[in-house]
Amino acid sequence: MINGAHVIIYSRDAEADRAFFRDVLGYPHVDAGRGWLTFKLPPAEVAVHPVGERESHELFLMCDDLEQTVADLTSRGVEFVSSPEDQGWGILTSIRLPGGGELGLYQPRHQTAYDL
Fold first, then answer.
1. Which CATH number covers residue 86?
2. By C-alpha distance, which of 104, 63, 105, 109 is closest to 90?
3. Partner of 29 for a Cys bridge, out of 37, 47, 76, 107, CB 3.0 to 4.6 A?
4. Residue 2 within any structural domain of the chain
5. pLDDT digits (tens, 9 = 90+) for 37-92
6. What is d(CA 63, CA 108) in angstroms, rounded to the nearest whole number?
7. Residue whose C-alpha is closest to residue 60's, from 19, 108, 26, 12
């Protein structure tokens, strides 16, 4: 039986992004060997969306209060790529990872599946 999922974030600066997840977000982790940290994520869900020609995958973190979460993360030095924007289904912004990538962050307004 499937008992979990493993998410991979590809990074131009993996050490900096690992430090971000460890030190800024405070996610518990294990060292899988040689400094390859694997982080425990909050409860998760997966959605399948239609796509045209270019297939891609995205990772979004979720929160109950985006305004407060943005304030907390900003006080820890996190850079936001965009201002929070109401999308109808939720309020969305993006975090700049130290390695240069982006990570979505949103407050859902839809029913969630992560605690079923």
1. 3.10.180.10
2. 109
3. 37
4. no
5. 999 999 999 999 888 888 788 889 999 999 999 999 999 999 999 999 999 999 99
6. 8
7. 108
